[in-house]
Amino acid sequence: MSIQERFRASTLAIVLMVATVSYGCQDENQVELQASCPVDVAYVTASGHEQGARYRAELKASFQSVSYNDHRALMAVAADPYIQHSPDLADGWDPVWDLFMNRSPDFSTRQMQWLGKDGFLDNGNFLVMFREVNRGDSTPPSKIVDLMRFDENGKYAEHWDIRQPLSNETASGRSETDAADVFVNNPVAYSEQIEESNKAVVAAFLNLAFNEGNLNKALTEYVDDNYIQHNPFIADGVEPVRQAFASGNIPALCYDIQHILAQNDLVVVQSKVTSTEGVSAVVDILRVRDGKLVEHWDIMQPVPPDSEMPHDNGMF
Question: How far is residue 129's CA from residue 110's CA, in Å, rounded to a whole number?
């Protein structure tokens, strides 16, 4: 299956899941799923930001090598082996190089600079990038999160991505990818201690809301009343979240948290989310101020069958 065919299949799956959110109903399978969700505390995280500048420089060098059509320069900053989790690309650097070399002339990308210095959140040996992409190949524009791991030599060694087509409109009237000016114009510089506390707040919220099935308590304890929402299907505030789930139209969700990374007031969570509709890769980006969730973005992509993956690594 080509990248374009995969993208169209993914788009259709998301449309069907949205239809379930709008018209579905609770059933015995959902009740059983909710009852079987374990509280998840076994996830990968990292600490510190000492290597962030080094990793950003390595990644910038790899981008420049592509623009100069310099394969040797790319391999100088690339780890071998390079582990791929994208459902679009096989392991190794050759598929990445081929993708770059065969892009449509109409390809465009816009990186979210609010995520961190030069548009990257860095934490330990990880970088995170959030962007809008138009492939220029008849597939719809999308939002994409890239999660990148660097090895002990500072080489780019492992990659995950999750992408979702952008909606034509949002319930809040906000962009799905931009950040609220009230926070962007009033930045904070949190200590590592507060960053770790923010990770714990986000993990506690996801576990309580979904794995323990107590959304109302989670919203009351962890979410600010003026919650800013970038999910295209839910409006700003706490009550629209409560109403969406209280309606019984959203299937029960089990969150298997894979990675939690943080810098300043932003926390990025990559999860394997199971519902009665199947398994999806989900990234939640949450802004935490004074111990409360104040802003939220998410990206969701249905996980394809193993037989359709171009490698044996899975999306996680």
Answer: 10
- Give 153-163 pLDDT, tens digit per residue: 999 999 999 99
Helix (H) or strand (E) holding 241: helix 239-246
Cα 139 to the center of its chain, rounded Å: 20
Q: How would DSSP label each residue in 14-69?
A: HHHHHHHHHH----HHHHHHHHTPPP----EE----TTHHHHHHHHHHHHHHHHTT
What is the CATH number for 77?
3.10.450.50
Query: Domain span at residue 194?
Result: 26-46+171-302
What does DSSP assign to residue 238? S
Q: Which of 204, 179, 182, 147 is nearest to 266 (CA)?
A: 179
Q: Which residues pair with 111 in a beta bridge?
A: 131
Three-state DSSP class for residue 4 = helix
Strand-pairing partners, residue 44, are 259
Number of domains in the chain: 2
Find how far residue 146's CA is from the centre of its chain.
7
Is the pLDDT reported for residue 15 higher than 50? no
Domain shared by 284 and 181, yes or no: yes
Peptide bond into 240 cis (omega under 30): no
215 in the same domain as 178: yes
- pLDDT tens across 28-84, in order? 555 566 667 889 889 999 999 999 999 999 999 888 998 899 998 888 889 999 999
Q: List residues bridging with 150 in a β-sheet.
A: 156
The letter for the amino acid at 57 is A
Both 225 and 264 in one domain: the answer is yes
Are the C-beta atoms of residues 298 and 282 closer than 8 Å to each other?
A: yes
For residues 238 and 201, state if they share a domain: yes
Neighbours of 305 (CB within 10 A): 6
User: Are 250 and 187 members of one domain?
Assistant: yes
Mean pLDDT of 91-97: 95
For residue 142, give the H/E element and its range.
Answer: strand 142-150
The pTM of the full predicted model, rounded to 2 decimals, is 0.90
> How far is Cα 130 from Cα 114, in angstroms, rounded to an integer?
9
